[in-house]
């Protein structure tokens, strides 16, 4: 948190927070339009920190859950970085009905289906949130295919991605919740410093409307 | 300069381009071959007119997420089997009439970055799916008896326990042991023993309901998982199993002989929430059936004291 | 003139609402930075119109709205939210919101809603 002041003034940070509230609110609306379900996204938590500070932040949130699945995807454009979606184990199964899939009717066991569902739904959730931020910095973002990591692979994948980097990261966190299925998960977006300039422009644009 | 149209025409992938109204704007040679619809017949037509299934919510969601967010979308074969119903072009079409597909969709944009449509790729993964199905079967089936194997039974029982707990449904299991099986092996040889195990497995399988699971739990032990079944009903079924085996005349070559089984029934309750606890209770009922003279059903008591009740008489 | 309360956790969001309110009508403006402060300020100030954000940490806007309308059934509360899902709008309406404005606020929309609210209250412009 302390590092933040050097890169953004408190006012700029407040604007960024508000812009993200708006973006994620619209993302929730788009998301519910697309999946035809009521989705809530919590007020995004935003921080600027060094890359090596990311892992503790993520693991703090998921500390309680030993058993979980993670989907990771890269996005690139002016807004470049990686998005990480983490579901406690079992949450994906709740979404089976959303995909008209039933475990019994399939050859695959429920864990395999859960993985496939998490990949599909993650792709949509990430798309919704990232596209809103991309819109803000007037950008077109492209995405890498999502990759799934189970339990013991998660920590390695995260440490590999965020270890030993001197540079700053912009960190977004939100909790999404599908009320009808009582299913929730965490979405983390991590972007590198290069995005900051574009975000500052978006911040100035926002302020200009009201002065 | 190479002509990209050649790639579009000859690539071993189905490629479809749609505009925002889902009208077909591109249809490659691969699609022509596998769908039997020529590009000139389908270009300019709404794809929903040809393939009504694409109007279902899961497909709409895919298209909407691409058109709204500009994201790539992936469409898993494991979840959906296919996107466009096409004939399976492989020899596996006897079992699997439709091609199994792994698909993706991505946005198409104009010069201003506005999304004007999307394209879809279709990858034929039928052969993988068939291969995977075989592997999955091998992993869950006992090679000798063709009943489920122990690891699959354990996994399913854990899932069924969770379901019983969540929905407050009854759940029972029957543990079955063949009486004096060693004698069969010693008297008639191991080939006959194997044959007997197979016969018993198939009798058990044809006697239980389709929702029940029968598996080989050990050398001469079988286990049945009976979802949504209280122990009273499980005992009736157990007794039927006992009767079927007792009355069957087993033949191997020119030999004929009789076999009996002992059965232990246990129902899930607050004290048997784990697999081990439930199996343990059924096992102790089975032990009691053995020591009481074999060829009978014993139901574990519900009071958790492992007090077994002889029910075989009432059921007969 | 009217008493107007703005409840939003973001300084900038409050600033943007303030920027949309006409300066020449002599309105008296008050601000609160979270739900609890908003409630307290409402009780002491009895504002004519309240602009209330939905997404706030701790006590969110819907909870504030519910509490306010319970104690002050005639309170005029305009909701500001980026979450424009039908269900969210319906919830706010059921809880008695006067109207719902999509974030980021646009001057014309805020002024139109304010005028409607003041007309209803019969507040005359100074």
- The first-level CATH class name of chain C: Alpha Beta
Largest sheet of chain A: 8 strands, antiparallel
Which series of helices and strands of chain A comes N to C?
HHEEHEEHHEEHEEH
Structural class of chain A: alpha+beta
Protein chains sharing the most extensive interface = A-B, 33 and 25 residues
Q: Compute the average pLDDT of chain A.
A: 81
Measured as a percent range, the helix fraction of chain A is: 40-55%
Would you summarize the structure shown here?
The complex is a heterotrimer of chains A (211), B (316) and C (126). Chain A has 211 residues and is an alpha+beta fold.
What does this structure look like?
The complex is a heterotrimer of chains A (211), B (316) and C (126). By secondary structure, chain A is α+β, with helices and mostly antiparallel strands. Chain A has helices at residues 4-7, 10-35, 54-61, 91-94, 110-136, 151-162, 194-209, and strands spanning 39-41, 45-50, 68-76, 81-88, 142-143, 147-150, 168-178, 183-192. In chain A, strands 1, 2, 3, 4, 5, 6, 7 and 8 form an 8-stranded antiparallel beta sheet that branches. The radius of gyration of chain A is 17 Å and the shape is globular. The mean pLDDT of chain A is 81. Chain B is an alpha+beta fold and 316 residues long. Chain B folds into 2 domains: 4-132, Beta-Lactamase; 141-315, Reverse transcriptase/Diguanylate cyclase domain (Alpha-Beta Plaits, 2-Layer Sandwich). In chain B, helix 9 packs across helix 10 and helix 10 packs across helix 11 (231-247). The N and C termini of chain B lie far apart (85 Å). The model of chain B is unreliable at 305-316 (pLDDT under 50). A 5-stranded parallel beta sheet of chain C has the order 2-1-3-4-5, with helices on both faces. By secondary structure, chain C is an alpha/beta fold. The longest helix of chain C has 15 residues, at 107-121. At the A-B interface, helix 2, helix 5 and strand 5 of A face helix 5, strand 3 and helix 6 of B.
